[in-house]
Amino acid sequence: xxxxxxxxxxxxxxVAAERAGxxxxxxxxxxxxxxxxxxxxxxxxxxxxxxxxxKLFKNAQFSGQYGVEADNVSFNFQQAMHWxxxxxxxxxxGVDFLMKEHNVDVLYEEGTLLPDNSVQAxxxxxxxxxxxxxxxxxxxxxxxxxxxxSSVITSRxxxxxxxxxxxxxxxxxGVIGMEFASLFSTVGVKVSVIEMLPEVLxxxxxxxxxxxxxxxxxxxxxxxxxxxxxENNTVFYSRExxxxxxxxxxxxxxxGRKANTGSLQKLNLAYRKGFLSVNEKMETNIPGIxxxxxxxxxxxxxxxxxxxxxxxxxxxxxxRDRMRYNAIPWAVYTIPEAAGCGxxxxxxxxxxxxxxxGMFQMKNNSRYFAEHGKGRGMCKxxxxxxxxxxxxxHLVGGVSSELIAGAAGIIEAELRIEEVKQIVYPHPSLSExxxxxxxxxx
Length: 442
Hints:
CATH architecture of the largest domain: 3-Layer(bba) Sandwich
Distance between the termini: 61 Å
Strand order of the largest sheet: 3-2-1-7-20
CATH topology of the largest domain: FAD/NAD(P)-binding domain
Strand content: 15-25%
Number of strands: 25
Number of domains: 3
Radius of gyration: 23 Å
Shape: globular
Largest sheet: 5 strands, parallel
CATH class of the largest domain: Alpha Beta
């Protein structure tokens, strides 16, 4: 008998297991594949490893203006993939160590929830006082005629290819599609992106999404385009009432994700739009059963899953806690990077706020100019004009993915304009763009 059984060893499941172990709970973590889940093995971590290699390659190519001359620079895809595999393997071993350190039992099987709230894994049945569902998500494959073509792959298969294709068509201009577009175009692959919306990265400020897209000068973008069918290695799409096509070696489907709920069908769990319904304490409609991460559809980010896991464990341990979604940062690791936290200006208006916003160009920051010249980038601050509270911070350019943590702290603490003005930022540092954007509001 366990205190807690966790289904799924991704960033939600293994963090929940670690936190429960720290509290002295007897924990069983059931994972059907590898610890770390999709993020560590087939998503976030391997893509960022490869993107780092691509950024180094690009920097070497254009380092002359900084006084560094590199001749005959080439990109060794096999070595980049080897480094990616090394990073993943090392991190997986790190998660395994954490489980052992906190006395978490790990079982490599597919677990199935039974009607009496027990879990079957292999030939055995396990029981616990509480169960946390952290089964994650999988690529969503839209019903496009011809999508079963041998040229069509998902992000998981793309991260396992042995050699670079000469061309790649990406269906979907969201985070996954744009990161792969940035990666492969940077290392010489001809990339096309087909997106049905008017702009890529729909969760971003429109102006910033446009910067990310237009900075990918080697990528062909087809916006407002609906994919009609796939024939062998050719994608046919409609735009402005006319049909066109693009052919490539590989076709990546990057059109969203769906919840992994196959092992949950024997229970009368409540769903919303195909995802498990939970409250702010991560409780499902069945007492003693919790759900966290992508399977809830609430915030499909690895760090969101980890925080959900902490909330679930605290709830189980009778510690007051709740999940808040207003200050969850996100980042897009394209070239250039982009990141944000809180409301966009449009979202703030839609929520009924009297909005006051300000912007600061990255090129006016001394650290940014020293490292990027006149490269495009900006920071945008969104505030509630009535209270002065900062409700959104958005960045594009530089190491936006690192800066956004500070922005999340500002929004979580509900700091006002005048309070942020009093914070001292190091100079010269890129972080000063946040303070300068705040000062632009006056």
